[in-house]
């Protein structure tokens, strides 16, 4: 798996290159593996936690990423990092920390290199310092792992799985797939600052929030996108644009704090410009509201930041016959080919009672792209997850039959696994809180200032009228000291409507059964629903389950799911051994898996007795072979 090292005439000869976490004080050298300045304690207090047991952290990170780190040795107060001007270094399975640098931040970074090297191979090295072969090419991956929160051992939301690249066969890191990105918009996560996103536009989706979501969307879009203006001089009524939107100005005001969290010598303006969309998407996610385009942006940024080896495409429905207004996300294994669709309807204009189409030439998916290989992630439309083929067959918000020429390619991105939000998450949360405090104050005064259209224009929107009529009750419910139990019935009902989500409470995964079973992000609860009654599945479906299910999950899945699988493989009305034979073939006659599906070490002998004789013979043969090999 490991890549061969280049040959350097160095003190290290043919040894693997050194990956060195550079000290921030190095001025003359190009920063080596030193992507992070020391993180401020208020941003990541956990990184200042003292006396962390080495083995505990290695075990926890190793289990989270599916990598055995027990063989790596960590050397404290080592003199070696000073030789290359580093805080810490990793070479082979030896990790050295300079004096005072055995911090959780540095350890997670170096163990991140260990995880990356195990999965993706040892890097070749791209420079030399003091005669040592140094590699500086894998910093973003190590930083990404460093910033990823450690999961509880019982958590079913493992952020990293191993996946084979179709293009190269190389094992790659893949953190969150489509389902987990979709969950970001559905399930609150206080630790990361995600709230459940409400739909801030049409189809009655927010009528029960009394228009507040509509107001938030309008406010936030202007907050992050509209440039502000100021007078050129006191004697001149002419106005000129300032440097950026209100959001950009807040980022500029926190420039020093942001740079303290980023690699040394980062160009602030270039970094903000490059990652503005990701920062903006986090703002909407933190504040929990959006239209279909916002949902699309949030999910896109999640997939870009947390997956690799795939393309993420922001799409919309389009036609030269009808006007569609819906955005969604598409993932596909290869860079999407595009063709032009002429005279496409991209909008409508109204002039009095007259409605006119606005037409343009747009890029759409090439007809040769296989829609069965593409996944639609549609957070706005009830958290839908399906193949593009299913979407085109009418499972879209307009219930229309579509083809590739109806899928407009707005923007396409290669997933990189880099998350610009992670190092400055706390700063963004501070900005978001200030933003909403400002909006709430303006709402109380009935004088919103940032919304681009005059406030009186917004009152013509029915949902905003609802808000205006019940403004006092809405503000009472929003108050931090709201007492739900003792509030008037009208306010209790309003609280229910505003905070108890109406619509789907789970991801609506419509992908083929095999795809869902193969997805490591399919939860135990979802498995239980998928496999309920599996004993009565037809033979083709049973074969699909056996070939697609991740049998490594045996022993970790709920007992009821294990029971469904056992009944499907060994019981049923048929005396045929075909399912049992296929199961044993799929698991490569692994006796441990046989024992697990039979209930575990304590119970498998008793349960084996209820299996029909021909099938029991096959199982005993595997179990006996295992005993013979162990002897």
Please characterize this protein's 3D structure.
The protein is an alpha+beta fold and 631 residues long. It contains 24 helices and 20 strands. A six-stranded mixed beta sheet has the order 19-13-14-17-18-20. The protein has a four-stranded mixed beta sheet with strand order 1-3-4-2. A two-stranded antiparallel sheet has the order 5-6. The protein is globular, with a radius of gyration of 28 Å. Mean pLDDT is 76; it is low at 1-13, 23-54, 153-176, 201-210 and 450-464.
List the main descriptive attributes of the protein structure presented here.
631 residues; alpha+beta; six-stranded mixed sheet; four-stranded mixed sheet
Can you tell me the overall shape?
globular
Largest sheet: 6 strands, mixed
- Structural category is alpha+beta
First-last Cα distance: 32 Å
Question: Over the alpha carbons, how many angstroms does the gyration radius reach?
Answer: 28 Å
This entry's quaternary arrangement is single chain
What's the gist of this structure?
The chain is of the alpha+beta class. Helices cover 39% and strands 18% of the residues.
């Amino acid at each position: 798996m490991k890549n061969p090292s280049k040959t350097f005439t160095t003190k290290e000869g043919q040894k693997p290159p050194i990956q060195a976490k550079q000290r921030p004080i190095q001025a003359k050298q190009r920063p080596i593996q030193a992507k992070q300045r020391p993180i401020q304690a208020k941003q990541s207090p956990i990184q200042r936690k003292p006396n962390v047991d080495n083995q505990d952290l290695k075990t926890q990170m190793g289990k989270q990423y599916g990598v055995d780190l027990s063989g790596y040795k960590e050397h404290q107060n080592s003199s070696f990092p000073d030789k290359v001007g580093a805080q810490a270094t990793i070479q082979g399975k030896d990790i050295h920390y300079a004096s005072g640098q055995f911090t959780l931040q540095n350890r997670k970074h170096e163990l991140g290199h260990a995880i990356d090297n195990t999965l993706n191979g040892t890097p070749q090295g791209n420079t030399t310092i003091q005669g040592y072969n140094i590699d500086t090419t894998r910093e973003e991956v190590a930083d990404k792992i460093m910033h990823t929160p450690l999961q509880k051992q019982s958590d079913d939301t493992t952020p990293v799985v191993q996946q084979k690249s179709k293009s190269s066969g190389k094992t790659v890191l893949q953190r969150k797939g489509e389902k987990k990105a979709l969950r970001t918009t559905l399930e609150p996560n206080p630790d990361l600052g995600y709230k459940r996103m409400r739909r801030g536009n049409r189809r009655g989706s927010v009528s029960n929030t009394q228009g507040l979501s509509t107001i938030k969307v309008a406010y936030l879009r202007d907050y992050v996108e509209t440039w502000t203006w100021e007078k050129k001089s006191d004697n001149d009524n002419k106005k000129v644009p300032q440097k950026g939107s209100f959001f950009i100005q807040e980022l500029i005001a926190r420039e020093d704090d942001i740079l303290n969290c980023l690699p040394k010598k980062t160009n602030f303006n270039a970094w903000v410009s490059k990652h503005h969309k990701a920062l903006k998407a986090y703002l909407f996610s933190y504040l929990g509201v959006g239209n279909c385009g916002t949902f699309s942006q949030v999910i896109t940024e999640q997939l870009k930041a947390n997956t690799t080896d795939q393309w993420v495409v922001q799409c919309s429905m389009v036609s030269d016959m009808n006007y569609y207004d819906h955005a969604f996300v598409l993932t596909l294994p290869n860079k999407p080919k595009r063709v032009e669709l002429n005279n496409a309807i991209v909008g409508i204009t109204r002039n009095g009672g007259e409605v006119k189409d606005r037409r343009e030439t747009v890029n759409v998916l090439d007809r040769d792209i296989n829609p069965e290989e593409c996944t639609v992630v549609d957070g706005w439309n009830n958290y839908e997850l399906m193949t593009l083929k299913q979407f085109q067959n009418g499972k879209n918000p307009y219930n229309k039959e579509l083809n590739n020429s109806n899928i407009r390619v707005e923007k396409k991105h290669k997933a990189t696994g880099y998350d610009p939000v992670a190092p400055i998450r706390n700063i963004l949360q501070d900005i978001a809180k200030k933003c909403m405090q400002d909006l709430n104050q303006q709402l109380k005064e009935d004088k919103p200032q940032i919304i681009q259209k005059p406030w009186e224009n917004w009152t013509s929107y029915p949902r905003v009228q609802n808000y205006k009529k019940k403004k006092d009750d809405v503000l009472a419910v929003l108050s931090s000291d709201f007492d739900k139990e003792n509030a008037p019935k009208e306010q209790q009902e309003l609280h229910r409507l505003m905070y108890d989500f109406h619509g789907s409470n789970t991801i609506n995964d419509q992908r083929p059964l095999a795809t869902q079973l193969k997805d490591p992000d399919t939860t135990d609860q979802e498995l239980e629903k998928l496999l309920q009654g599996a004993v009565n599945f037809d033979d083709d479906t049973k074969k699909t389950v056996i070939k697609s299910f991740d049998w490594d999950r045996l022993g970790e899945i709920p007992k009821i799911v294990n029971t469904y699988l056992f009944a499907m493989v060994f019981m049923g009305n048929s005396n045929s051994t075909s399912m049992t034979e296929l199961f044993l073939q799929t698991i490569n006659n692994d006796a441990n898996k046989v024992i697990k599906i039979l209930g575990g070490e304590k119970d498998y002998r008793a349960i084996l007795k209820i299996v029909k004789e021909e099938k029991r013979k096959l199982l005993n043969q595997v179990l006996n072979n295992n005993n013979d090999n162990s002897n």
